[in-house]
Amino acid sequence: MLSIIKKAAFRQFKKFETKHHELNYLFWECTTRCNLNCLHCGSDCSKDSSHPDMPLEDFLSALDTVKQPSVGNVIVVLTGGEPLLRNDLEMCGREIRKREKRWGMVTNGQLYDRDKHIALLNAGMGALTISLDGNKTTHSWMRNSTTNFEKVDNAIALAASYSRLNFDVVTCVHQKNIDELPQIRDYLIQKKVKAWRLFTIIPIGRSTQHPELFLTDSQFVGLMDFIVHTRQNPEIDIMFSCEGYVGKYEAKVRDSYYFCRAGINIGSILIDGSISACPNIDRSFVQGNIYQDNLMEVWENKFHVFRNRKWTKTGKCAHCSDFKDCQGNGFHNWHGEKKHPLVCHKEKIS
Amino acid sequence: MKKNRLRKFLGGLSFATLLFAFQACYGTPQDDGLDIYLYGKIVSKTNGEPVQGINVFVSNLDYYGTLPCAVSDEDGNFSFFTVLNDHIAVRFEDINPLEYGHFLQKDTVLTNIYTTKILLNIELEEVDALDHKKGGVSAI
Ligand code: SF4
Ligand code: SF4
């Protein structure tokens, strides 16, 4: 009974959030250059590394149009490519903070040393995510690098030592590391990491050439069970990423029910100035460009496709009994012809 | 106002405050932490000229190690963010006296902090060429 009330309230909450659509999470794809060559790349970024980095002032002109939300802060999340390849990163951070916005960064850790860590904290960095994809052997295989594991190990220790930082580790779960999860968990606890997020890969980009990157259905169920079990351990806050609706595991693998906030609270400025939502979303959903449009006007007046998801009621989603709660799964699952989502997580656990 | 009350009510009915703490798959957590911005200008007590190259340390926080939080620029300006604590010990130190003149170290402790931004305008005493004693401590 209680869960029915909770679910109903959450649906109303989602409607409310969608109607008011406050932009409070803004990705900035500040570079597409990268110093690694990961196997799964292409599933989460454009990977057009020939594109020049976006000049800071171009981004700031767009950011200046963004209003303060009624609750909390706006956070700018610097992503890439590898943001640490920009040599003006601290300046970027300081300028963002000058505008009363917060900022954070997603990094592969390769260039994250002590000097960089302190310099970024001094520039007001408040959130950080570091990728770790397995034990040393598996991580090195996935990241195509023999040196990255040590760098990540060091970066994690630095980040975990600073209590002010909202820091988490993300792990991309695949066939080669699914059995290592308990080992990774113990390692993270020993490193004093407080938050750990797990996600899976969708079959696009370079990842499609590696079938071992995709979990079988029973492995996916194993992943859900592992998360549910580990959530009883107070030493680490583990969760499944926002990537999809997981039916009977809803609210057991995350702090809340599934809600894809792309275009509702999450926006992005991509490397070429395109305005969209999460950077892993198909580029055909781009809503405008900061070099021609006012970011906030685009946010307010466009983005209909994100805020009314009835169009996803097609293909396998057309007659799905969970559509109200899932709405066609994470937006990043819609590519190409958009006849059906690339992945239905619920299908995997049924 | 009414809008936020309704939002919190619906959120509270389903999953309380955690509702507002979302993050995207490939993004970072949100940042709702408290920090403080310290900024200001360092000048010479002797002639009021800006002093460049002074290292600014938060000396009561271990994780900085020997790294400064800021180094004053050619206009004597410095700025940085640090953790908002109930007291913050700040040290201004001339670590390379040969470069821009030789100045005495100054320490100051900030207490009763009720703001997220503090201006620190600092005057440093220049060390006489013959007097190399160090360690003058004063609060602003
Ligand atoms: S069929 Fe579509 S709406 Fe139903 S659970 Fe799967 S992705 Fe979601
Ligand atoms: S599109 Fe939706 S599900 Fe995918 S990363 Fe963004 S918020 Fe998460």
Concise account of the structure shown:
Chain A has helices at 2-20, 56-63, 89-98, 114-122, 136-143, 148-160, 181-190, 217-230, 295-301, 304-307, 323-326, 345-349, and strands at 25-29, 75-79, 102-107, 125-131, 166-172, 195-199, 237-240, 266-269, 274-276, 288-289. Chain A is of the alpha/beta class and 350 residues long. The mean pLDDT of chain A is 92.
Molecular structure report:
- The complex is a heterodimer of chains A (350) and B (140).
- Chain A is of the alpha/beta class and 350 residues long.
- In chain A, 32% of the residues lie in helices and 14% in strands.
- A ten-stranded mixed β-sheet of chain A has the order 7-6-5-4-3-2-1-8-9-10, covered by helices on one side.
- By secondary structure, chain B is mainly β.
- Chain B is 12% helix and 33% strand.
- Chain B contains two helices and seven strands.
- In chain B, strands 3-2-5-6 form a four-stranded antiparallel β-sheet, with no helix packed on it. A three-stranded mixed β-sheet of chain B has the order 4-1-7, with no helix packed on it.
- The C terminus of chain B is likely disordered.
- The chains are: A alpha/beta (350), B mainly beta (140).
- At the A-B interface, helix 1, strand 2, strand 3, helix 4 and strand 4 of A face helix 1 and strand 4 of B.
- One iron/sulfur cluster binds next to helix 11 and helix 12 of chain A.
